[in-house]
Amino acid sequence: MSTPETVDFVRVINGVRLELESAGNPSYVVIILDAAGEAHLSPMVYATVGPSADHAVRLTKETDPGEHVLIVSRSAAGRRAMFTVLEPRSLKKLHQRLEVIEESFAETDRPI
Asked: Residue 13 is part of which domain span?
């Protein structure tokens, strides 16, 4: 059984990375972690934390024992992207991951 203290946050972030990166900046997605630690994504990606938190709180009331609802967000500024995992009711940060956005030579438009 997973608890917020034992969640593999890197695995959770990697599981929702594609949806968040393709949705724009910033983006929020609600996930349900089952008792085995597998993430199940909500079908909607949100642009603000308010609607995602409302949706997550509604899902929290319907979860089975051992399941946890979390919000995962992504925001990018310049060449840095921040992934944050939040607790839905208090919006407390459970985990934060900073990454550098890589650019190809074609994107930089500079000589090699």
From this structure: 9-108
33-48 pLDDT, tens digit per residue, is 988 888 898 888 999 9
Please indicate, yes or no, if residue 77 is contained in any of the structural domains: yes
Residue 21 to residues 26, 34, 37, 51, 99, Cα–Cα distance (Å): 9, 24, 23, 19, 12
pTM of the predicted protein model: 0.83
In a domain, 42, yes or no: yes
Residue 49 lies in a domain: yes
Residues 45 and 28: beta-carbon distance below 8 Å: yes
The number of domains in the chain is: 1
- Measure the CA–CA gap between 41 and 1, rounded to whole angstroms: 19
Query: In this predicted model, what pLDDT tens digit does every residue of 7-26 receive, in sequence order?
Result: 889 899 998 988 898 888 89
CA distances (Å), origin 71, targets 2, 20, 30, 38, 44: 16, 11, 5, 14, 12
